[in-house]
Amino acid sequence: MRANLIAGLDIGTTKTCAVIGEVIGDPRRPGLTILGVGQARTGGLRGDAVTNIEEMTESVRASLKEAELMAGATVDRVYAGIGGDHVRANSSMGVVAISEDEVTADDVERVHVVARAVALPPDREMLHAIPQEYRVDHQRGIKDPLGMAGVRLEAEIFMVTSALTVAAHIRKATNRAGYRVQELVLEPLAGARAVLTEDEKEVGVVMVEIGASTTDIAAYFEGKIRHVAVLPFGGSTLTADLVQGLSVPWAEAQRAKEHYATAYTQLVDPRETVELPGPSPNQTRAVARELIAHIVEQRLDEMLGFIQRDLQDQELMERLAAGVVLTGGAAALPGIVELAQQIFAAPVRLGVPREGLGGLADSVGRPKFTTATGLALWGADRFRETGEGASTLTSGMLTKLGTWLKEFF
Ligand SMILES: Nc1ncnc2c1ncn2[C@@H]1O[C@H](COP(=O)(O)OP(=O)(O)OP(=O)(O)O)[C@@H](O)[C@H]1O
Ligand SMILES: [Mg+2]
Asked: 190 C-alpha to center of ligand 1: Å?
């Protein structure tokens, strides 16, 4: 077993995806050499609700086996994604008195403990506690307070919690498949790791990851995470509209969406038609592509409009000078950038995993691989901090002080 392997596991509502990579090169800025990718249809899930743990286990096993086969290596631990609208995020402040003349590591540790000491309901678990900034006396915006002189140290911590049951199901399916969850990572944070640049996060940017049943949002400015959300709509919402609007079964509506749909009706030639199944078997009928585009555009307009208003309400929109980065399976829709530009009145680009990736990077260079690749990159970052890979044998190794993203078993 190689010690520097990392695996990301994304159990999406339609597909389960595994990415295996190897951390090499500059230890201060680790990229990831992609070695293997595996995909399987997700079974046993309906939205957040697990309907069949065995089927879910099988999806995990199949995707990881495929990735291992391609990588020519095995892993025993994974960075697993967690999403769903049960996720809550908020900021919390902590204050302590600085014990000596200047801030020590012990003071920083204490202020983190204070900030994190909010009551956690028994049905929830802490996923992330990310230090946002520190204040020493009245000076704000400090990234690293160590060694600064003062009497009072404050920390602002971004905390993310999830429903205990959802986390437990992911661990259970992973364990049954023969792997261990190294860390649970909030999907929007993993996605953002894969497709946003540090510069964009500094200037202000929002990632909108449109999956099947969920849309993940992660907004940053001044280099800090400001807002995350997992919204209960996505590509399946569009499919459901096509089922209604075109009077076709689900599978046909899905196919029409993936092959003929456009998100921006203006881009479609009004004379163009496509063949869809007719009312009785072995019959087909001609449907205007413009109609398909119109149905999809209307719903996407509503979905993206909802996100835009939400960002506006939180006074975030004006902070996002780098605009919007669209990703997720449904971001493959032609014309979606044009539509989003109109709705957000901001720059919009498509995000696919690419930056910092080597090896078989092409095999993850699609918007549907954003979360899984982001999870592997998250693992690579963690490897840099702790030296722990996906197949080291010293599993009891202690996480270094200063690693604040913990997994509570
Ligand atoms: N070429 C395409 N055009 C339009 N939609 C597409 C295309 N390819 C995939 N999709 C849609 O993207 C969605 C799947 O995206 P993705 O794989 O990111 O979702 P997921 O991770 O399984 O789900 P979720 O993130 O909601 O749990 C489906 O609705 C699918 O129909
Ligand atoms: Mg997904």
From this structure: 17
Alpha helices, H only, 103-248 = 105-116, 164-176, 187-195, 198-203, 235-246
Higher per-residue pLDDT: 281 or 298: 298
| CA of 13 relative to ligand 2 center, distance in Å | 7
Query: pTM here?
Result: 0.91
Distance 228 CA to ligand 2 centre (A): 15
**Where does ligand 1 bind, in terms of residues with CB under 6 Å?**
12-15, 211-214, 234-236, 254, 257-258, 328-330, 332-333, 368
**Mutate which of 9, 13, 14 for ligand 1 pocket (most atoms within 8 A of beta carbon):** 14
Secondary structure of the chain: what % helix, strand, coil (to 5)?
Answer: 35, 30, 35
In ligand 1, the atom with minimum distance to the C-alpha of 42 is 22
Helices (H), 117-163: none
What is the residue type of 121? P
Residue-level pLDDT at 116: 87
User: Residue with the nearest Cα to atom 3 of ligand 1?
Assistant: 258
In 3D space, the residue among 345, 49, 50 whose CA is nearest the CA of residue 58 turns out to be 50
Q: Does domain 5-83+164-196+352-386 have CATH number 3.30.160.250?
A: no
Separation of alpha carbons 355 and 194, rounded Å: 7
Domain 88-160 coded CATH 3.30.1490.110: yes
Provide the pairing of β-strand 15-22 with 32-41: antiparallel
Q: How confident is the model at residue 15 (pLDDT cuts 50, 70, 90)?
A: very high
Contact (CB, 8 A) for 93 and 23: no
Which ligand 1 atom is the nearest neighbour of the CA of 10?
21
Fold for the domain defined by 198-351: Nucleotidyltransferase; domain 5 (3.30.420)
Task: Compute the distance from residue 368 Cα to the ligand 2 centre, in Å.
Answer: 7
